[in-house]
Write a structure and sequence with these properties.
By secondary structure, this protein is α/β, with parallel strands linked by helices. It contains 13 helices and 15 strands. α1 (about 10-20) links the parallel β1 (about 1-5) and β2. InterPro entries: FAR_NAD-bd, Lipid_A_modif_metabolic_enz, NAD(P)-bd_dom_sf.
């Protein structure tokens, strides 16, 4: 049995591999842009930082092979014979690689997220017919649907998108459905919400998806400390009753693997989609209350965009821009099919936000220039 995974050294891929190796999947091939020694070293350091059990770290040394590949190139940039051999040996494919930068260049996002998916699907098509395909998408393919319940089967672009990242992931899902219909091969599509680690990420582990937002808040705090003075109100545009779904990445990785193992023998050409989300949305008000307790320099509020913005509000409007549309969201996600695919009682615990504010005082956080803090590299 050979499992091929793209994005295995990224944030989600690191946790997925840790859980995967605990299940003894056989041989695992990690496709990475880095040269093999460097990619394998990054993975081992991440597993050490996550305190993975000794058996998992030993399995990573024995069973994981890193292969340098480029998902944006036809044939993944591999020699034809290497591509054919990889496809012939593959029994399962996990496509996790993506550019998750919300405000990246649209052409770059399309090249990585859509073009990369199409090139990875070509590998799946060259694999034996029984090879299983798992595509990691995002709950945010729902785009600008800000109200109501998003069903797991829905894939609708009529409301538009908050950013080009969402558009590119939507287009990738469309490509997956078209490929499955054309080839007659089933695909499991997994749509996690905003995945976070519920404690500060240790050195050696890729940062969570809101790391750049935390870095920006840390910079604001470092530059505008106001000891002994009243907190400065920062009015952000949004709904006071907004909510956002966040889920612990460790639980999400376990849930995706468990659901994958239990969903087998799907009809030819069928695409099964699961929302890998927390059963409880997080109210924005809770985040603001915690921020007030942990970042006393600011008083964050949501409401209409201020007509007379102060300096920090102008800063936020510019550098928080990729995140601000989500302050208008009140939607929730159907997870009935996910629940049916998991063992009874398999649900995430309450989400702690101590990690968010502990990170603000962590030496691990750099203080980048705001313009550089908005970007995240491809996973």
């Amino acid at each position: 049995m050979t499992v091929v995974i793209t994005g295995g050294t990224g944030f989600t891929g690191t946790f997925l591999l840790r859980s995967m190796l605990a299940r003894d999947p056989g041989e695992v091939v990690v496709l990475s842009r880095d040269e093999p020694g460097r990619a394998h070293g990054r993975l081992l350091r991440a597993l050490d930082a996550l305190a993975a059990p000794s058996a998992v770290r030993q399995a990573a040394r024995r069973q994981v092979t890193a292969v340098q590949a480029d998902i944006t190139r036809p044939g993944l940039g591999l020699p034809a014979d290497r591509f054919a051999a990889l496809a012939a040996s593959m029994t399962e494919l996990w496509h996790c690689a993506a550019d998750t930068t919300l405000n990246a260049d649209p052409a770059s996002l399309r090249r990585v997220n859509l073009g990369g998916t199409q090139n990875v699907l070509a590998l799946a098509e060259a694999a034996p017919p029984g090879a299983r395909v798992r595509h990691l998408s995002t709950a945010f393919v729902a785009g600008r649907r800000r109200e109501g319940l998003i069903l797991e089967d829905e894939l609708d672009d009529s409301a538009g998108f908050e950013n080009d990242y969402e558009r590119s992931k939507y287009d990738a899902e469309v490509a997956v459905r078209d490929w499955s219909s054309r080839t007659g091969r089933p695909v499991l599509v997994l749509r996690p919400s905003l995945m976070v680690h519920d404690r500060p990420a240790p050195a050696g582990v890729p940062d969570h998806q809101i790391g750049s937002l935390v870095s920006l808040l840390a910079r604001m705090r470092a530059v505008h400390r106001r000891p002994g003075r009243e907190p400065l109100t920062v009015r952000l545009p949004g709904r006071p009753d907004a909510r956002l779904n966040m889920v612990q990445v460790g639980w999400a990785a376990e849930a995706m693997l468990e659901a994958s193992a239990r969903i087998a023998g799907r009809p030819a050409g069928a695409v099964t989609t699961l929302h890998v989300v927390h059963p409880q949305d997080t109210p924005a008000e809770k985040l603001w209350r915690l921020a007030a307790e942990n970042v006393p320099e600011f008083r964050l509020t949501l409401g209409p965009a201020p007509a007379d913005p102060n300096f920090l509000e102008r800063f936020a409007a510019t550098y928080f821009q990729p995140f601000l549309p989500f302050a208008w969201h009140r939607r929730s996600y159907d997870r009935a099919r996910l629940v049916s695919a998991l063992p009874s009682g398999h649900r995430p615990g309450p989400l702690s936000f101590d990690f968010l504010f502990a990170v603000l005082d962590s030496p691990r956080i750099e203080r980048p220039h705001p313009a550089s803090a908005e970007r995240r590299p491809s996973r």
